[in-house]
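Hello Y.,

Per our agreement to keep a running log of every chain we model this quarter, I'm adding this entry. I've kept the format consistent with earlier entries: sequence first, then predicted structure.
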Amino acid sequence: MLLQWQYNNRADNVFFIIATSERALYANIILKKGVI
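Predicted structure for the entry above:
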């Protein structure tokens, strides 16, 4: 689990973000190229 500022820092370097149906704030998945 990431804090909001950690999520924002990682989101700066991603190719895409998949929004989930989670109702929690910042409940998204970050996928990076080469990492599964």
